[in-house]
Design goal:
single chain; mainly alpha
Length: 205
């Protein structure tokens, strides 16, 4: 039970910081520069029903925190926090937005999409934190070295990234930025942790 509480605390500390930085940067920034879709973006059809896969992101993050090996838990938290800091700085220095399409669906899909649009920022496009956190979660899950879990998480992540593009919540440029952000922050945190362990070893000697 104590272990589960610890994991919950790490999730609230890591993911919670992302939410705070994301919200504050949205409120403090100026008008966003409108990003134009590329030809590849235009080839991806707009699909409101993709909202259900998009929302599964909010299951992937907890799954990562509760399934990641204990030794990688702090790495996941710090990598998410660092990603939020870099992204927040980018949102403030270079606020971006895009043209969001209208939709005519009804029922539960419309309700889910309207709810998402009500709480999600219309700016904070580049880089995509949605993509960055998704990839960091998959990276963390892969450290369990269970091929089936890695395969499922990779397929899940690819579906989420595709849903982001199908919903026109981000463009390919934003997704690419989120990928670079995840890779950079993940490796930076790993390097800092490795250096800290090395310094500790020298100090113990």
């Amino acid at each position: 039970m104590k272990q589960w509480i610890s994991r919950l605390q790490q999730m609230l500390w890591g993911w919670g910081c992302v939410g705070v930085i994301y919200t504050l940067s949205d409120r403090l920034q100026g008008d966003g520069y409108v990003l134009a879709p590329s030809r590849l973006d235009q080839w991806i059809p707009f699909s409101p029903s993709a909202v259900w896969v998009y929302l599964s992101f909010f299951l992937l993050i907890p799954a990562a925190y509760f399934l990641v090996p204990e030794s990688r838990l702090r790495w996941l938290t710090r990598a998410m926090q660092l990603s939020a800091l870099f992204a927040g700085g980018c949102y403030l220095l270079w606020p971006t937005t895009m043209q969001y399409p209208d939709f005519s669906v009804t029922g539960y899909t419309a309700a889910a999409l309207n709810s998402l649009m009500a709480v999600d920022s219309r700016q904070n496009c580049f880089p995509s934190l949605h993509v960055a956190l998704t990839l960091l979660s998959v990276w963390a899950l892969a450290t369990r070295r269970q091929w089936w879990l890695t395969a499922v998480s990779v397929i899940w992540a690819l579906a989420i990234v595709l849903s982001i593009l199908q919903l026109r919540r981000h463009l390919l440029l934003d997704a690419a930025g989120g990928t670079v952000l995840a890779a950079g922050c993940g490796y930076l945190v790993s390097w800092l942790e490795k250096r800290k362990r090395a310094d500790k070893g020298i100090a113990d000697e």
